[in-house]
Write a structure and sequence with these properties.
Elements: H1 2-12, H2 14-22, E1 26-31, E2 36-39, H3 41-47, H4 59-62, E3 64-67, H5 79-85, E4 90-98, E5 104-113, E6 120-127, H6 129-164, H7 173-179
Antiparallel strand pairs: 1-2, 1-6, 3-4, 4-5, 5-6
Length: 180
């Protein structure tokens, strides 16, 4: 109740609201019961919710989290529940969230407990879908380029090996030194 009152006071304070609304990452303030007490415009935009629709809902109906490759999270792996049950900050860069329209996005999430254990949490998240796609493309490019480079190098090494083999070629010592 105290946390809820503090969060309500914070939401009513115009200067705090300006700061929270200016943050580009999604911000959720969640009470001990898992109810969203505060949600900023970035969170609404990222998750596809309209202003006011997500307030007072349980966070799991708004921020639907899964692990990578849509793997279901157990209660012990669920970061918001972990933070509510401990006094430790929880960070995860390998989560997916489902938007209101059902689209899966990759997110980076930091959940910080407020006050005493179980009082509530602040969850800050951002959409990292583009970054993950760029990382995959970069890794694929490096893998392809590496493969493309290895193929001709392997051929060259094979021919040089044949040139150095006395059973297949006869070369003088100077040429052998150059090849080596």
């Amino acid at each position: 109740k105290q946390l809820s009152d503090e969060l309500s006071d914070l939401a009513d304070n115009e200067s705090s609201e300006v700061v929270i609304n200016a943050i580009g990452d999604g911000v959720l303030a969640i009470d001990s019961q898992g109810i969203i007490q505060l949600i900023n415009p970035a969170a609404l935009s990222i998750l596809g919710w309209a202003k006011g629709d997500a307030l007072t809902l349980h966070y799991q109906s708004v921020l639907k989290l899964t692990g990578e490759y849509a793997k279901q999270l157990t209660d012990t792996m669920e970061p918001i529940k972990q933070a509510l049950n401990t006094t430790q900050e929880i960070r995860s860069n390998h989560l997916q969230a489902e938007t209101k329209s059902g689209k899966k996005i990759s997110i980076s999430l930091v959940v910080s407990p407020l006050g005493a254990t179980g009082s509530g949490v602040i969850a800050v998240f951002r959409d990292v879908t583009k970054e993950r796609a760029e990382e995959r493309e970069q890794a694929e490019f490096i893998s392809t380029a590496s493969h493309e480079m290895r193929t001709p190098v392997a051929s060259i090494e094979g021919y040089l090996g044949l040139a150095l083999n006395p059973a297949t070629a006869t070369i003088d010592d100077k040429a052998r030194d150059f090849i080596n």
